[in-house]
Amino acid sequence: MTIGLIGLGNMGSAVANLVASNGNKVLGWEYNADIVKAVNTTHENARYLPGISLHPDVNATGDLNEIFETCPVIFVAIPSVFFHPTLEPFTKKGRNKLFVDLAKGIDRKTLLTSFQTLQMLFPESRHIMLSGPSIANEFSRAMPTVVVLAGETGNGLLQVAQILENDYFRVRFSQDVIGVELGGILKNSYAIGLGIFDGLSIKSINFRASYLTIALEEIAKIGVELGAKKETFLYLAGMGDLLATSLSEHSHNRRMGEFLAKGYSLSEIEKKMGVLPEGFNTLKITLYIAEKNHCSMPLAKGIWDVIHGRLEANKFVSTFIKDFIE
Ligand SMILES: NC(=O)c1ccc[n+]([C@@H]2O[C@H](COP(=O)([O-])OP(=O)(O)OC[C@H]3O[C@@H](n4cnc5c(N)ncnc54)[C@H](O)[C@@H]3O)[C@@H](O)[C@H]2O)c1
Question: Whose CA is nearest to atom 9 of ligand 1?
């Protein structure tokens, strides 16, 4: 059986390599033709996963048809903003597949999460969400990693667990699909906030601990409004992922916060990063949803104000201490 991977970016390449190293053949679709060529010829993806030699059983294609025609299990690792335009032409070919969603975002037009978008586009397929602390640059170097899988079917969960697990990569199961997904989605916005503090060179552990605790409280508050179980946020897909993404030097979201603290504008940051990280879109949508649900999220609102120049980055800290803690 060949496992399909849509998107050989940082996460997609790392998962492709993991799955191939576990003894599976992998076919990855990639948007960027140069990467397709590099993966097939040099077995490297220097742009998205530098320093890692890809397993010879990772092959790449620029033709998404090939994935839908050959692969019964398909991992999706493109940012959520590309889900609809990339996958919509394949709704018929994508029947009876087992999809594994690695992306963590919300579509700004439909307000559907990436997992819900997969369910909507491929209603006759099975779907599994993978979330939890899973920084690609770490597990691609065999660093110990435990993630959470949540989905509809027991068999599908077991099958995906078998594809992924080895000595350093383990999975746990959860029945709270929306909670697992929202933990992964919402934490990205708060990682931007921690990046602001890092960009201001604030080294205080007291402060980080307070910030992350308050962030988790807000995540759980809106998550419960949206149907998640509160306990889910106290575990790997909530607290675990929030800590990993906020503290990791590899996090795109945290890096965006550092740029904000250094005074870069949104358009300058977009130019530097190529695509704005998922947390930016998520923040906008979360604040919209929170307002509709009469749910106050002062910390998220503060990050949004820094992004739009309504609150100076260096005032964010004093404001956090005074005003964001309800
Ligand atoms: N990087 C991580 O450690 C990590 C961990 C867990 C989850 N994720 C999630 O995985 C998803 C992908 O993140 P990433 O870090 O791999 O991103 P990335 O920036 O490394 O890769 C982006 C991918 O999107 C593709 N792409 C770019 N433009 C496109 C277009 N117009 N249409 C279709 N595809 C296009 C790129 O070719 C590439 O495959 C995100 O939702 C992220 O939250 C990432």
Answer: 103
Coil, helix or strand at residue 264: coil
Domain that holds residue 240: 178-324
What integer pLDDT is reported at residue 325 of this predicted model?
Answer: 63
User: What number does the ligand 1 atom closest to the CA of 48 have?
Assistant: 20
- Pick the closest to residue 171 from 115, 133, 227, 211 (CA basis): 133
Whole-angstrom Cα Rg for the chain: 19
Co-location of 247 and 182 in the same domain = yes
Judging by beta carbons within 10 Å of its beta carbon (0-12, 13-18, 19+), is residue 267 exposed, middle or buried? Answer: exposed
131 CB near ligand 1 (under 6 Å): no
Residue 61: strand, helix, or coil: strand
Q: Work out which ligand 1 atom sits closest to the CA atom of 114.
A: 41
29 token code pair = 């679709």
Angle at 207 between CA 203 and CA 212, to 5 degrees: 115
- Paired tokens of 68: 């839908």
Taking only the tens place, the pLDDT of each residue in 21-78 is 999 999 999 999 999 999 999 999 999 999 999 999 999 999 999 999 999 999 999 9
CA of 107 to the centre of ligand 1 (A): 14
Q: Distance between CA 213 and CA 302 in Å, rounded?
A: 16
Residues 165, 256: one domain?
no
The pLDDT of residue 275: 82
Q: pLDDT tens-digit profile of 159-185? A: 999 999 999 999 999 999 999 999 999
pLDDT digits (tens, 9 = 90+) for 98-141: 999 999 999 988 989 999 999 999 999 999 999 999 999 999 99
Looking at the fold, whether 24 and 87 belong to one and the same domain comes out as: yes
